[in-house]
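Exercise 7b. Backbone tokens:
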């Protein structure tokens, strides 16, 4: 996301750069409401003091809490929405990636918030999107919900594998989601690369690149922006 912001010329402040800033939802679920309120009050001060006009989060749970519980006087967007807006405004020149991808609708982003169109429209700008048999309100949970206190790690893994096998029944080359918890869950069971949608955007960026870059003292020819990022995790 930081590389994307830089490429798009966005003046941004990374709120989590010096340590995680929890939205407060885990504490609420655990019954620690007083502590959650203190944390939320501190977060509101940080956000107000930043002078930012937009708050962008990649976590659907954080998006839901910041948008519905904090009552901020600024726009709150999930990163799928914000990245789509940047692409539509011409600030993110995206090239086509090889292969295809299937998209997983995270539970909190779909059935609750109903953000369906932006991630799919964004993906179609850069890769062939394969429809999944379970989409939108009929999506499948990754098994790693914050509220799932009773299931052990093995049961969560079984749920994740079952969901992955059904969602990627057409064997797409890439499995894409837009929730960090879902990404972690599916990475444990997937047969193909699991990507956050922002990672694909970063790979597809048609940024102006030099003919060669220096990596650990070696001059490496740049074949393409997508290739160099893939090879060297640039």
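Sequence design result:
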């Amino acid at each position: 996301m930081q590389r994307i912001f830089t490429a798009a010329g966005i003046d941004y402040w990374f709120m989590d750069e010096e340590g995680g800033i929890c939205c407060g939802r885990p504490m609420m679920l655990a019954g620690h409401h007083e502590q959650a309120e203190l944390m939320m009050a501190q977060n509101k001060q940080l956000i107000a003091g930043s002078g930012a006009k937009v708050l962008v989060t990649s976590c659907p749970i954080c998006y839901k809490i910041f948008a519905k519980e904090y009552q901020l006087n600024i726009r709150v967007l999930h990163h799928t929405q914000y990245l789509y807006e940047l692409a539509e405004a011409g600030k993110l020149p995206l090239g086509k990636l090889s292969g295809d991808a299937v998209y997983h609708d995270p539970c909190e982003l779909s059935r609750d918030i109903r953000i369906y169109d932006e991630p799919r429209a964004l993906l179609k700008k850069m890769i062939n999107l394969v429809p999944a048999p379970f989409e939108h309100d009929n999506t499948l949970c990754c098994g790693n919900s914050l509220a799932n206190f009773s299931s052990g790690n093995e049961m969560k893994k079984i749920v994740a594998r079952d969901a992955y096998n059904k969602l990627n029944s057409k064997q797409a080359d890439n499995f894409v989601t837009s929730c960090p918890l879902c990404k972690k869950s599916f990475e444990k069971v997937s047969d193909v690369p699991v990507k956050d949608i922002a990672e694909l955007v970063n790979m597809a960026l048609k940024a102006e690149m030099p003919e060669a870059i220096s990596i650990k003292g070696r001059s490496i020819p740049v074949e393409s922006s997508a290739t160099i990022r893939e090879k060297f995790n640039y």
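Instructor comment: The CA atoms of residues 3 and 202 lie 7 Å apart. The chain has a mean pLDDT of 85.
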